[in-house]
Amino acid sequence: MRHKLLDLAEQSSLRENSLNFAIGDTVDVHTRILEGNKERIQIFTGVVIAKRGHGINENFTVRRLVAGEGVERTFPINSPKVADVVVKRHARVRRAKLFYLRDRVGKATRLRERRAKAGEAETSS
Amino acid sequence: MPVGLLGRKVGMTQVYGENGVIIPVTVIEAGPCPVLQVKTVDRDGYEAVQVGFDDKLSESDKERDPGQRLRSRASRSERGHVAQLKSKRQDRLVKAGVQVAPKAGCEPKRFVREFRIDGEEHGLEVGQVLDASVFAEVKKVDVVGTSKGRGTSGAMKRHNFAGQKASHGTKKVHRRVGGIGGHAMNLGTSGFIKKGKRMAGQYGNARATVRNLKVVRVDAENNMILVEGAVPGPNGGYVMIRHSK
After folding, report:
1. Interface probe, candidates B27, B28, B218, B223, chain A, greatest A C-beta count within 10 A
2. CATH architecture of B33-130
3. What is the distance between the alpha carbons of residues A58 and A77, in angstroms, rounded to a whole number?
4. Interface ipTM > 0.85
5. What pLDDT digit, counting tens, does each position of B199-234 carry?
């Protein structure tokens, strides 16, 4: 059994309002970036292809294409550097890990869209 | 040096520090530690404060009435160390005018250690309970524990020796120590191996100290201290936390 002090230690580092997105969603990840001593938000847009870990260790991977080259970034869900995750589009997927997208190019990388389920974040069209 | 605390290693996790940097931390359940004895130069020859941690009673025993508890868990001398017990000998000593040492009046403790005081004013009295707030203003601590026992281990694991070659004629000696000194060497003159020569043997299960661990958080309310980095011993092992010099 996990010791209650471990949960207590992590508590302050966990995100207060949980991020609501699913595998296959196309998302905008808002990351805080420090430039000099000014903070600004950088947006990384792509498809969520994996989530792994749990608790304080949970993270997710977002894949996008930049100039024809696949780029993947992994973000810790609880990191204060991740300001927000905005869902642009849901997709119907049958896997928890969408690594097969790495082998595909062009039209084959499209995922079938689905409407938001009750309680899910509304897609912004 | 001020008095430290005793505690139990709970485990490791990570927390976010400033600028979203992940800090690996060890969670230590620290205190509460009652002062069991204050040793003085006059009586004991040295100055120290003895503190205890963790009741000897099991959880099931705590629910029983004090009269029904399995007293065999703590010997009479252990019980007498923390609380005033009635005895004929003591009555006799009191009658003869011998002063009885003050007692903490707590349960017998499982983990008892002393913190040496070198002529400093500490103002602690027997029975006073220390908690994690003693580290509230402290930046760095030393943690003393008992390292995980690894049993009899070879020289490669125990002393980080390099072993021998995998091939080029090497046979059956890949993880052996190698030479331990010849007859004409300072290392092993006249048929004797030099004392202290590092070889295979018992590894771990020994007192180990990690110094200058950064204190990340002190939560006296929940008896919790977070220190950056690892601490010797298994989860659940007892540790001694003291101020770094």
Report:
1. B27
2. 2-Layer Sandwich (3.30)
3. 6
4. no
5. 999 999 999 999 999 999 998 889 999 999 999 999
